[in-house]
Structures are given as structure tokens and as C-alpha cells.
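Work Package 4 report. The design task specified in the project plan requires that, given a folded chain encoded as C-alpha cells, an amino acid be chosen for each position. We show below one input record used in the internal validation round.
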């Protein structure tokens, strides 16, 4: 293994939205940046692909000029106990994109800004030494004064920092995305182009049926813990039960007719910012996006937090250099909170589940509260 030292101001591990945002902004600021991703881009990514206006703003992209699949929407529904609750706005409040396209677009934009991209290269180890942080791959090693971990939930940088804990709060998911064609989508649902959500009766998760351009994205996610997934019990089993019930409902109401072939459903779990949050930085390391466990607890929204933390990480590196880690940790706490429940959270957490369920039902049923607290609050629609 030949160590390659001195050439980089920063190395970014992972080229998803978080990693691309850091690399784009650092390279634009004149830094020498290397991005390493295990996958060859364009690569598939399990995700419903719902992005808020804040994401486009942070990326400085005008969504009207985005050249790939984009589905603006100004309505959304939640199905609760069999009743469809509709919310409409007089403007576009969010967008649907296809992650394979979106992530490739952002990574190539970072490259055009001057970042060097090495995709199809897996990072196998990250070690802090006297000359900086060394990043090992199967064939080569690279060194830089600072390494940004943007490798998602299992990021090797987060692992090196000891931040991947047993039993942390995660969202467990199953999802399939299929190019079905707009004409057929219009036959399948009268709400084509609008996200349709399905609240789980105990409010520990929700399903979605999201039509975007030619694509149908169907999935479900619920809160669980990572430990259960490894033993094949607990939240993994719970998710399958919820998934089967949702599929039966979609088949029964004609949204998933027998002849419709979907891409195979796949599963993934990722940390959310509840209870024991991951540290965002250590000596020579910054973590962004899922690597830092920044996704929102109620909605599971993770693209916005990944992009926004990427921008904060790049700014901390450009402005503070040797004290970037401290500055970044402060910026993350200011933007995303401590990740630990405050007074209101502790009070709510102490209530019996039946009471919080009743409260959640009341919020969903009241049009103003649903709009403000659910869609605009938890889902970040504007
Ligand atoms: C089913 C599902 C639906 C979702 N729906 C939404 C949604 O609608 N809206 C939303 O905002 N969020 C959604 N999310 C969450 C969102 O997908 C993530 O929060 C987001 O992708 C985080 O971005 P990231 O850049 O941190 O990580 P990622 O997008 O996971 O990117 C990490 C990158 O690191 C690379 N990598 C990993 N390990 C290594 C290694 N050892 N060496 C080199 N590279 C490595 C990977 O190949 C990958 O490209 C959903 C998630 C799931 C699972």
C-alpha cells in the first residue's frame, strides 16, 4: 500500500447528498478535495426522494432548472383509520426526485467545481496519526488534515470515532421504486403527482405511495432499534407485519393491481436524532448526514439534514481550519438541537402511549394542525 500524502486539504468519505454538498462547497472555496465512494455512480439509493425547498436553497439550485425527473407538489394526503385527510396549499411546497439521478447530478457538480471523485473505491479504515488522518482503501491510502465522514448509516469514519452504537434509535424501512409510466400511474391513482401517506394506527411509522414523473415509489418505515435488526427480531419483524398490512390495503383498493410488476422491495435502517445522538465531530473528523444520525425523528427526512450539515461542515473547514471540528459541533447543535429531549419532549415522553396516540390523532384530524405541525413542521414543507 502506497500512502499518498499532502495532496489534499480534505477527504470526503461518501458521495451521497451530504458528501457532495461538502465537496462542492469546499472545492468552490478553493480547497483540494478528494471524494471516495464505494459505489460506482450513478448508483441506486433506497429513498422516497421527497425534498424540501430548503434543500434546493442550501444547494443553490433553482428547482425550475433542475434537468432531471422532478415532481413539484402542492397537495398531500394522510390516510388514517381508513379516512383520507387532504391538505392543499396555493403554492409548491416540496418536490419528488429520483435519487439515482439526483445524487449523480450533485456529485458531478462537485467534480465540475474542482473536487476529485474516486467512485467504485471502498474505504476500509480511517486512522488518526501524526501527519493527519489516513484513509485506507483496498488499493491505496490517502492522508489529509481533516476527513469528512459522509458514508451514511454505516460510515467507516463514524465507526472509527466509535459513534455506531448498539441499540441506537433507527428508522427501519422497506421500499421499491419502479418506472411505471405516467399514463398507467394516472389510472392507478386519482392523486397522481401527490404523495399519499398512510399513518400506522400506533403512530410509530407510516407508509407512502408516491408517484413522481414516470416513477412509483412505495414503502414503509417505522421506529425501531438497530440491535433488533441484527438478531432478526423486534423492529425487523414488526416492520414486516406493518408492510404486509399496507400491501394488502393497496392491493384491495386497486393501487397495486395483480399484474403490476414492481422492482423488488429492499430494506435499510438509519439513525435518527432521538435520545443518544451521534457526535458530529472529533479531532480531525467531521460527520455529516446519516453518518452523524441527523435525520428527523418523526418524518425520517434525511436529505435536508445531509445537505445542510454538508454546507456547515465545508464552511467550518474553510473558515476555521484547525478548529473546524469545534466550530462544526457548535453549528450542528445550533441548527439541529442537542438531540436530547427538552422539557416538552420529556413531558410528552412520560405520557402513556395511549395519550400520545390520541394527541397525534387529534393533530392529524384538525386541518390547521395537520398542515402546520405534520406537513410543515415534521416534513419541512413550506
Ligand atoms: C426507504 C427510505 C426512504 C427515505 N425517504 C426519504 C425522503 O423521502 N426524503 C428524505 O429527505 N430522506 C429520505 N430518506 C433518508 C435519506 O435517504 C438519507 O437520510 C440520505 O440519503 C442521507 O444522505 P447521506 O449523504 O448522509 O448518505 P447516503 O445517501 O447514504 O450516502 C452515503 C454514501 O456513502 C457511500 N459509502 C458507504 N460506505 C462506504 C465506504 N466504506 N467507503 C466509501 N463509500 C462508502 C455509499 O455508497 C453512499 O453513496 C429515506 C431513507 C430510506 C431508507
Amino acid at each position: 500500500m502506497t500512502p499518498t500524502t499532502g495532496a489534499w486539504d480534505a477527504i470526503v468519505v461518501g458521495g451521497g447528498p451530504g458528501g457532495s454538498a461538502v465537496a462542492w462547497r469546499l472545492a468552490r472555496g478553493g480547497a483540494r478535495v478528494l471524494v471516495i465512494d464505494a459505489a460506482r455512480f450513478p448508483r441506486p439509493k433506497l429513498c422516497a426522494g421527497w425534498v424540501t425547498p430548503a434543500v434546493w436553497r442550501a444547494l443553490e439550485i433553482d428547482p425550475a432548472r433542475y434537468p432531471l425527473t422532478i415532481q413539484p407538489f402542492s397537495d398531500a394526503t394522510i390516510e388514517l383509520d381508513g379516512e383520507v385527510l387532504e391538505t392543499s396549499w396555493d403554492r409548491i411546497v416540496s418536490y419528488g426526485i429520483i435519487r439515482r439521478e439526483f445524487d449523480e447530478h450533485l456529485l458531478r457538480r462537485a467534480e465540475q467545481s474542482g473536487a476529485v471523485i474516486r467512485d467504485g473505491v471502498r474505504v476500509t479504515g480511517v486512522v488518526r496519526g501524526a501527519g493527519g488522518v489516513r484513509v485506507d482503501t483496498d488499493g491505496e491510502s490517502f492522508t489529509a488534515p481533516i476527513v469528512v465522514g459522509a458514508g451514511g448509516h454505516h460510515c467507516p469514519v463514524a465507526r472509527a470515532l466509535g459513534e455506531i452504537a448498539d441499540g441506537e434509535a433507527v428508522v427501519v424501512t422497506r421500499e421499491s421504486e419502479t418506472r411505471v409510466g405516467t399514463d398507467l400511474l394516472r389510472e392507478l391513482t386519482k392523486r397522481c403527482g401527490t404523495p399519499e401517506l398512510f399513518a400506522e394506527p400506533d403512530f410509530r411509522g407510516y407508509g407512502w405511495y408516491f408517484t413522481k414523473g414516470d416513477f412509483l415509489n412505495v414503502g414503509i418505515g417505522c421506529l425501531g432499534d438497530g440491535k433488533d435488526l441484527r438478531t432478526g427480531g423486534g423492529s425487523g419483524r414488526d416492520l414486516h407485519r406493518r408492510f404486509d398490512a399496507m400491501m394488502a390495503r393497496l392491493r384491495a383498493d386497486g393501487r397495486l393491481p395483480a399484474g403490476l410488476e414492481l422492482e423488488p422491495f429492499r430494506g435499510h435502517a438509519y439513525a435518527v436524532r432521538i435520545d443518544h445522538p451521534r457526535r458530529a465531530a472529533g479531532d480531525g473528523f467531521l460527520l455529516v448526514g446519516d453518518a452523524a444520525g441527523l435525520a428527523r425523528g418523526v418524518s425520517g427526512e434525511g436529505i435536508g439534514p445531509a445537505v445542510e450539515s454538508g454546507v456547515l461542515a465545508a464552511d467550518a473547514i474553510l473558515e476555521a481550519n484547525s478548529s473546524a471540528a469545534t466550530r462544526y459541533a457548535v453549528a450542528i447543535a445550533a441548527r439541529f438541537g442537542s438531540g436530547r429531549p427538552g422539557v416538552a419532549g420529556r413531558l410528552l415522553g412520560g405520557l402513556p402511549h395511549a395519550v400520545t396516540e390520541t394527541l397525534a390523532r387529534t393533530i392529524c384530524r384538525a386541518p390547521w394542525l395537520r398542515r402546520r405541525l405534520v406537513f410543515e413542521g415534521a416534513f419541512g414543507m413550506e
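The longest helix spans residues 234-252. Validation will be extended to a larger panel in the next phase.
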